[in-house]
Amino acid sequence: MAITALHPLRVAGTDTLSKQAVSAPWSAPPPGWVKVNCDCAFSATRKRGTYGAVARDPTSQVIAASSGKMCVASALASEAWAIWKACYLALTEGWKFVIFENDSKSSH
Question: Where in the sequence is the signal peptide annotated (predicted)?
Answer without folding.
Answer: none
